[in-house]
């Protein structure tokens, strides 16, 4: 009997020794605003099914603001995963900051408009109506990232109102357009739908017309100085999975459910 107890104890201790503790990694992620609200909800859900912990930072996809993703990478801040506009991610792949073959397109995002809560909502349902709404507004706010770049460099010229908008349009840095609109800093604001709908103090008008809409893919990539490659892949796989899709849709984005490159 004593011999059997000793044998069982040895097997139990040996199992603990060889199995070791469950490995837990801290995955450092920086995301641009379009995917931020979705990630805030998805990260805790991922942590429930994984020993890994997700550390989230935020920054715009492009631009020279001190907290933009390009500026933070230029300061040698370290991240495992970047989530931002696909074209901006491609730039980081070309520069070597992100590993080739790790890009995963997570969602499609479109541009919408908002006004301060309780203010009259202009008609933006057609291209002529949108043009008139832009011309009628005393001030128009747009982001310093992907959607704002499209508005200022493509849409305004296409509508033939670039000169007029140069006098009334305001580029918003380091905060969401909706926040500026809620404060009354601008009468009309444009940004990715997912960055507008959760802002208190504004009324969402709707998406801009399909004829002038700009759909932007927001993508994840793994940095070249990643600390936890396997854990980073695991997190991206979760974000790209059907499990994450309902949360992504609720955040105002279209999940793409892509196949993974690894």
List the helices and strands and how they pair.
Blueprint (H helix, E strand, L loop, with lengths): L1 H18 L6 E6 L1 H17 L3 E6 L10 H6 L6 E5 H10 L8 E6 L1 E6 L10 H10 L3 E4 L2 H14 L2 H7 E4 L4 H7 L4 E5 H4 L5 E6 L8 E7 L6 H11 L5 H6 L3 E2 L7
Protein architecture, described:
By secondary structure, the chain is of the alpha/beta class. It folds into two domains: 25-108 and 217-255, D-Maltodextrin-Binding Protein, domain 2, CATH 3.40.190; 111-212, D-Maltodextrin-Binding Protein, domain 2 (3-Layer(aba) Sandwich), CATH 3.40.190.10. The protein has helices at residues 2-19, 33-49, 69-74, 86-95, 127-136, 146-159, 162-168, 177-183, 193-196, 229-239, 245-250, and strands at 26-31, 53-58, 81-85, 104-109, 111-116, 140-143, 169-172, 188-192, 202-207, 216-222, 254-255. The longest helix has 18 residues, at 2-19. Mean pLDDT is 92; it is low at 1-21.
Cα-to-Cα separation, first versus last residue: 52 Å
Give the overall form. Answer: elongated
Strand content: 15-25%
Count, helices: 11
What strand order characterises the main sheet?
2-1-3-10-4-11
- CATH topology call of the largest domain: D-Maltodextrin-Binding Protein, domain 2
Number of domains: 2
Q: Which sheet architecture does the biggest sheet show?
A: 6 strands, mixed
Q: Which CATH top level class of the largest domain fits? A: Alpha Beta
The CATH superfamily of the largest domain is Periplasmic binding protein-like II
Radius of gyration: 23 Å
Weakly predicted, low-confidence segments: 1-21
Give the overall average pLDDT: 92
SSE string: HEHEHEHEEHEHHEHEHEEHHE
How many extended strands? 11
């Amino acid at each position: 009997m004593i011999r059997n107890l000793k044998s069982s104890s040895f097997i139990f201790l040996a199992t603990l020794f060889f199995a070791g503790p469950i490995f837990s990694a801290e995955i450092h992620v920086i995301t641009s605003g379009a995917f931020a609200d979705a990630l805030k909800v998805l990260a805790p859900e991922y942590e429930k099914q994984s020993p890994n912990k997700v550390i989230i930072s935020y920054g715009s996809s492009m631009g020279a603001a001190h907290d933009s993703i390009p500026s933070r990478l230029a300061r040698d801040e370290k991240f495992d995963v970047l989530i931002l506009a696909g074209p901006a991610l491609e730039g980081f792949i070309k520069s070597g900051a992100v590993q080739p073959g790790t890009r995963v397109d997570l969602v499609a995002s479109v541009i919408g408009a908002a006004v301060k809560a309780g203010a009259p909502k202009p008609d933006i349902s057609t291209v002529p109506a949108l043009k008139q709404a832009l011309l009628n507004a005393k001030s128009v706010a747009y982001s310093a990232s992907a959607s704002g770049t499209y508005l200022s460099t493509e849409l305004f010229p296409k509508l033939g109102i670039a000169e007029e908008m140069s006098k009334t349009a305001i580029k918003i840095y380091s905060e969401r357009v909706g926040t500026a609109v809620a404060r009354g800093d601008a009468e009309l604001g444009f940004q990715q739908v997912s960055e507008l709908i959760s802002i208190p103090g504004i009324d969402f008008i709707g998406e801009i017309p399909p004829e002038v809409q700009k759909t932007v893919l927001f993508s994840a990539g793994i940095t070249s100085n990643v600390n936890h490659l396997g854990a980073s892949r695991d997190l991206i796989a979760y974000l790209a999975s059907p499990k994450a899709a309902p949360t992504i849709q609720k955040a105002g984005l279209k999940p793409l459910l892509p196949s993974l490159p690894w």
